[in-house]
């Protein structure tokens, strides 16, 4: 290309911002939405975007006042680095204004219910001054108010997939890496649920079309006809794709659960103003939890710095600080992520329920074994999970005297990439396990741990535990609520020293 032509192209790009040109014709930012989500008619699309703007405007005005940066100008307040987890790339600016909570494309009905409920709570609070406590109450009280709302979203039967296998196609735009990782993500869903998927060239019913859009995003639940799941650049990771498929199966984000106040607190001063509406909670009418508790390790959870205006500042704080680096993980579905789908889609799939231990349950897709909480293994979850790429782990008694465990290769040469160990530490009946880290402690350091040692001390061993990484050795001892403590070592991206811990009963 001659220098003059290059200059002209540069001028066009600069003049038009991020608008893409093909054969001289501009492609509007929402082009890929219209192309890959045909169930949204032009009217639907206009209604949805209008409602989404209203949701943003109402939440924004309510909290920051009308004199602050207007939502209409919000594109200038957006940064390319906006994302909901460090382990999940953000969508690109042209598309992000059409999405809710960073990676959800709402239907008009969903947007309508969210706005209606937001306004209802505001009316109730209209005498209150605009302040964060008021908005916080707005957010938290919405779940109570909405319990009278009979319309539902995820809980809607219409949003469930009815015909199996769920058919899907690959759009030509996908990279080879994306196709590989989508296959792995689908395999994980199939290996842990009764759900089946089938790649087809000519779909015969409602289906998913994976395509390479401007980021990772999806609609919630089955929409009807062809519905896209965007796996854009940087999204080609199994856990991230499992997350997006989770949305397509009907999962909302974990921190949007009506009971999120149990476990997290928001830091509104650190949230980019125009994304305050992305921290609203759903109502009990919109969400069916099947009695499954809030899980910090859900692959559907925001990370600590979701929508932050400063990457050194957190927007989501965990009430128990030991979970701070657990939230936002995108390695894979948690035990409870899988179980909520199994409860929704796979009830009574097996003739016989196996006697599974430690919170496991009969695998609804195979019926010849149990699905075990992380750290447990064996056909009926009565032993520790087999190690990966290392000789480590085990079921160890906690005695009166201290005993020690370490990560593989500790401290030299240290742990390697893609290893896993699981220990079940068991105190005598009526006693508890006390564990403390000693000597050197060093893990690859990230806001959400990618390499870590996890301690499950809760009475509910199905919950994800505290994940520790970075360079500061935790100084506080951990004591289990019951006689068992589960310790898991996991490395996914790096090599480092690892940990050493000692334990006994108390
Ligand atoms: Zn999401």
Task: Enumerate how many helices there are, as a single number.
Answer: 9
- Backbone CA Rg: 24 Å
Main sheet makeup: 6 strands, mixed
Strand order of the largest sheet: 3-7-8-6-4-5
Morphology call: globular
Q: What ions, cofactors and ligands are bound?
A: zinc ion
Overall pLDDT, averaged? 87
Number of domains: 5
Q: How many β-strand stretches?
A: 23
What share of residues are in beta strands? 15-25%
Based on secondary structure, the structural category is alpha+beta
Low-confidence stretches: 1-22, 72-77, 129-153
**N-C termini distance:** 75 Å
Helix content: 10-25%
Pfam family, one: CUB
Domain CUB: 392-506
Enzyme class: hydrolase
GO molecular function: metalloendopeptidase activity; zinc ion binding
Structural topology:
Elements: H1 3-16, E1 20-22, E2 25-27, H2 31-36, H3 42-64, H4 93-96, E3 104-105, H5 108-124, H6 132-145, E4 166-170, H7 176-192, E5 197-199, E6 207-211, E7 216-219, E8 226-231, H8 238-249, E9 264-266, E10 316-318, H9 335-345, E11 361-362, E12 370-371, E13 376-377, E14 383-384, E15 394-397, E16 403-406, E17 419-426, E18 433-437, E19 452-456, E20 466-468, E21 478-479, E22 484-491, E23 500-505
Parallel strand pairs: 3-7, 4-5, 4-6, 6-8, 15-17
Antiparallel strand pairs: 1-2, 7-8, 9-10, 11-12, 13-14, 16-23, 17-22, 18-21, 18-23, 19-20, 19-22
Helix pairs in contact: 3-5, 5-6, 7-8
GO biological process, one term: molting cycle, collagen and cuticulin-based cuticle
Protein name: Metalloendopeptidase
GO molecular function: metalloendopeptidase activity; zinc ion binding
């Amino acid at each position: 290309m001659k220098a003059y032509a290059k200059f002209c192209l540069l001028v066009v790009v600069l003049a038009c911002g991020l608008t893409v040109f093909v054969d001289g014709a501009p492609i509007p930012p929402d082009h890929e939405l219209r192309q890959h989500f045909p169930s949204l008619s032009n009217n639907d699309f206009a209604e949805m975007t209008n409602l989404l703007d209203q949701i943003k405007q109402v939440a924004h005005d309510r909290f920051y006042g009308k004199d602050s940066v207007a939502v209409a100008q919000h594109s200038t307040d957006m940064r390319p680095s906006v994302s909901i987890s460090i382990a999940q790339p953000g969508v690109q600016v042209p598309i992000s204004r059409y999405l809710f909570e960073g990676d959800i494309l709402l239907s008009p009905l969903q947007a309508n219910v969210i706005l209606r409920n937001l306004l209802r709570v505001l009316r109730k609070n209209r005498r209150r001054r605009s302040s964060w406590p008021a908005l916080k109450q707005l957010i938290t009280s919405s779940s109570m108010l909405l319990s009278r709302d009979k319309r539902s979203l995820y809980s809607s039967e219409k949003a469930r997939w009815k015909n199996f296998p769920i058919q899907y196609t690959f759009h030509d735009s996908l990279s080879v890496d994306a196709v590989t990782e989508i296959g792995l993500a689908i395999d994980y869903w199939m290996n842990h649920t009764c759900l089946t998927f089938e790649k087809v060239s000519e779909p015969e019913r409602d289906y998913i079309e994976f395509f390479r859009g401007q980021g990772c995003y999806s609609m919630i639940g089955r929409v009807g006809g062809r519905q896209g799941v965007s796996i854009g650049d940087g999204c080609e990771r199994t856990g991230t794709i499992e997350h997006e498929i989770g949305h397509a199966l009907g999962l909302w984000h974990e921190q949007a659960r009506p009971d999120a106040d149990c476990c997290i607190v928001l830091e509104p001063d650190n949230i980019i103003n125009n994304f305050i509406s992305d921290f609203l909670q759903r109502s009990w009418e919109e969400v069916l939890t099947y009695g499954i508790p809030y899980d910090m390790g859900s692959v559907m959870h925001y990370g600590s710095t979701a929508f932050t205006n400063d990457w050194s500042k957190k927007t989501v704080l965990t009430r128990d600080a030991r979970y701070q680096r657990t939230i936002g993980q995108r390695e894979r579905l948690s035990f409870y992520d899988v179980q909520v789908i199994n409860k929704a889609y796979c009830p009574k799939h097996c003739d016989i329920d196996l006697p599974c231990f430690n919170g496991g349950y009969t695998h609804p897709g195979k019926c010849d074994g149990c699905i075990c909480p992380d750290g447990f293994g064996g056909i009926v979850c009565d032993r520790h999970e087999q190690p990966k790429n290392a000789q480590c782990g085990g079921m160890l008694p906690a005695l009166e005297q201290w005993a020690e465990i370490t990560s593989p290769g500790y401290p030299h040469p240290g742990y390697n990439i893609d290893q896993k160990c699981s220990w079940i530490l068991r105190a005598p009946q009526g006693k508890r396990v006390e564990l403390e880290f000693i000597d050197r402690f060093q893990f690859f350091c990230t806001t959400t741990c990618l390499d870590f040692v996890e301690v499950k001390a809760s009475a509910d061993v199905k919950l994800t535990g505290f994940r520790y990484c970075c360079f500061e050795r935790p100084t506080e001892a951990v004591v289990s609520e019951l006689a068992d403590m589960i310790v898991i070592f996991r490395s996914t991206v790096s090599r480092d020293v690892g940990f050493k811990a000692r334990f006994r009963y108390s």
